[in-house]
Each structure stands twice: as C-alpha cells, then as structure tokens.
Amino acid sequence: MGAVACGAMESAYQHHAARALLDWQIELGATEAICDAPVDRYGLPASLPKPAAAGAPAGAPAGAAAPRPAPAAPDADPVAAARAAAGAADSLEALRAALASFEGCDLRRGARNLVFADGNADASVMIIGEAPGREEDREGRPFVGRAGQLLDRMLAAIGMARDATDPAKSVYITNILPWRPPQNRDPKPDEIAMMLPFMQRHVDLVAPDIIVLMGNISCQAGLGRRGITRLRGNWTESYGKPTLPMFHPAYLLRTPYAKREAWADLLELQARLRGNA
Ligand code: URA
To answer: What are phi and psi of 161, to 5 degrees?
Structure first.
C-alpha cells in the first residue's frame, strides 16, 4: 500500500478515535465544549486577523507562519496575595468576601459553591475539617453529608451542637479548603499553603478557646505534620490556640472500631471545656 493510502488510513483512524472520544464524553453528560482555561469572549476583538503560519518572517502574508506569542507573565505569588486579602478582612463577612473573590486557587472554578463555615461564631470550639465533599459543595455548608451527620451525633453525645446559642455548648465549623476538590481528591500542598493565611485570619476573627483538628489533612495544615493515630487525643497548639486533634468522622464511618478512641477524645474535650482537664 502506498504512502498516500497509509496517510488516508491514519487520518480516518484519528477521525474515528476522536469521534469515539466525543461520543463517550456526551454519554457521560458533557453538554458543552470548553477549554482548560476560561475564555472571556466579551474581551475578544469582534473578528480576529487570520493567523500567519508558524515561523513566517515579518510582513509575510496572512496564513503564513507567525512567531509564537510570548508566554504570559507568571501570576503573582498566590500565598502573598492570600496574606494580603486575608489580612485586610476585618470581619467574618469580609473574610468570606475575600475568599469569594480570591483568584489564586483554581479549585474555585470547578466548585458549585464557596463553603465558608457553619455554626455559632461565638462558640468556644472551632472545628477545622479538610474540604467540602459533594453534599457540602451543593449546599454551601461544611459537614452536611454522612460524615457531617456523624459529627453532629458525636457533638450531641457531649451536649454540643453547631446551632446552640450558648457559646459553651456550640461549635463553629469550617474546612481548610473552601472549595470541593475534583473527585474529592486530597488537597495539594500549594492549595493548603494559599489557604493558610485565610485560616489564620478565620481563627483570629472567631477567637475560639479551643480548636479541634479533624483528620490528617487538617493536622498537616495546622501542625505541619500528619499521623492522626498518634496525634489524636493529645493537646497541642495550632493557629495560636489550644488544639485537640481527632479522627475525622469520615474515617470513623469506614473504621467503626476507632469510635472508642473518638469517644475518649470527646470526653477529653468536654472535660477541658468544663475546666477539669
Ligand atoms: N469532610 C470534611 O473534612 N469537611 C466537610 O465539610 C465534609 C466532609
């Protein structure tokens, strides 16, 4: 078979492969063709000049090669931008607004809602989880899925609730990441790093007596180390506050026998709040 026929076969194969991929995406529910990065179509000129072909010399006719555009300037340091935005927030509403307009974290683009916090902002206890899941993303509130329901039951067992009005009996709940990561993957170190200034400001504004870090991700962010099995139940300090690491309720759902330790930690928290720990 000649070279032309081979080329034709190859292009037919590519066509069928592309077509099969497209059909597969449509079957999965894709309804629009979009790029990896959003395009501001209002910002584009009404008609674009026909691009010159790659490598064409200056003054070459349209359709000839054009030099590649210079790479975009790298974004400003997102951690520095987060520090500036968080530091300027003088209330929880301002902090929520600062997060809502923070462009440094790409997770926001795949999320339905910003998940800021829930509970009583005067509470003595601030609980810090890791990141919203599907239910939280849908509702815009942290810990409302199965893990959240277990958390509510755990708190109720020591007479506490997120909606209690008495600060000594209520909790304030938030997450390290305010946006759901795709497929609930673990937060990446750079995502945690850019959220830390917001979290420190969040803690400063709520000013709880005690912080509870739920699970490894939360410990990694707040304490700089993981190993929840060893960390749990031992008082430490994060964000300048007395801190109790605990098993994450999602882990307890998967590992019911660990509920014994979680119960011991809840009693420890209760004793500390009563002033006898
Ligand atoms: N897990 C978390 O860490 N946070 C939530 O909000 C939900 C599940």
So the answer is: -160, 150
Tokens at 121, concatenated: 């902002």
Least Cα distance to 160 among 50, 47, 25, 269 occurs for 269
What digits encode the pLDDT tens for the residues 232-244? 999 999 999 999 9
Nearest ligand 1 atom, CA 136: 6
Q: Flag whether the pTM goes above 0.90.
A: no
Nearest atom in ligand 1 to 176's CA: 3
Q: Which two tokens stand for residue 153?
A: 């039951």
The structure tokens 């500036």 sit at 84
- Indicate the length of the chain as a whole number: 277
User: Which of left, alpha, beta for 162 (phi over 0: left; psi -120 to 50: alpha)?
Assistant: alpha
Residues 6+ away with beta carbon under 8 Å from 276: none
| Residue 129 CB–ligand 1 contact under 6 Å | yes
Mutation pick for ligand 1 pocket among 127, 134, 136, 214 (CB with most ligand atoms within 8 Å) = 136
CATH class of 78-276: alpha beta
Does 1 have pLDDT greater than 60? no
Measured CA distances, 265 to 240, 246, 253 (Å): 21, 7, 16
Q: Which of 113, 130, 248 is the pocket-test mutation for ligand 1 (most atoms within 8 Å of CB)?
A: 130
pLDDT score of 240: 98
The CA distance from 76 to 42, in Å, is: 24
Which atom belonging to ligand 1 lies closest to the Cα atom of 249?
A: 1
8 A C-beta contact, residue 245 and residue 226: no
CA distances from 153 to 162, 186, 254, 258 (A): 11, 25, 16, 15
